[in-house]
Amino acid sequence: MTKKNLILLYGVLFSMMLSLSSCSSDDSNSSEIIPLSADIFQSTVGKKVAFQGLTNNATSWAWDFGDGNTSTEKNPVHVFAEGGYYTAKLTATAADGSSVSKEIKLAIDLTPYILLTGGPTATEGKTWRMSSGHSDGDYFANADAGLTPYDAAPNPLPAGILGVGLGLGEVYQDEYTFHFDGSYSMDLKDGAAFSGLVYQFLTTGGAGIKNPSSDQDFGLCTGFFTPEPNSTFTYNESTDLTVSSVYGPGGAMIYSGVSTLEFSGDMFFGMIDYERRVIIKEVKDNTMKAIMFISASPDYAPLNTHALVITFEAVQ
Question: Cross-referenced Gene3D superfamilies, in alphabetical order (predicted)?
């Protein structure tokens, strides 16, 4: 090897040594001052989460997984007992006692029930109200097997129709809160609930009506109602629901394999009528589509004649 080549080789080796000596990690003894920092990487499978603490200049790590459990490992693996929304926090501490924290929000194994209630960490429950914007799938239906659209009503329902079109805009303000433990409450802003006109006439003689619809062909109104304390709800993810219907044989209609809500006492969701049970067509993080039945004909009451397919939105 020539002298020129030896000099070139030594130069390359020396550059590599300098590069390696400049690299640093949590365990580095380099004299270079590296600011304390922390970040989180995570990988989730079901309820199991593998965490990785991405830190510089840290000598200890403290994890709070948001469910009451903790760890001092740098890269812990944690299994959550319940699905839900959690905030995991990493606190990294340096040799001089200084510390820095990083948080990450997790959505773990979100079942429909958790989407409905907010999960075990939602201490105030999850609150819903009828969406005034409606959606493409909101419509006035017949209470038949296919919940076919009612010809006399617009399909889909225009935004704000219950207010501008029917004079019942207050129903968009009422709130319904579901808790993970099965408790249930509602806040009727004006002391009256969205209701069926026929139901109110036949059960209260009309005395329970606070605000009749401006177009009574739809058979809707608001009716006075006092929510019951200590109420509960039951969510059935898949069941066969039998309701009364003018379209069903013997006055009954069966909806198979549907998700439903039912309530203790006289409580309800969204609308009060003879049928208090509600079909939940879908529930997502911020929206839920419900089907509420109505007995809109005095000739057939209390058999259901129609249904409202309505979108609810989560109250932020």
Answer: Immunoglobulins
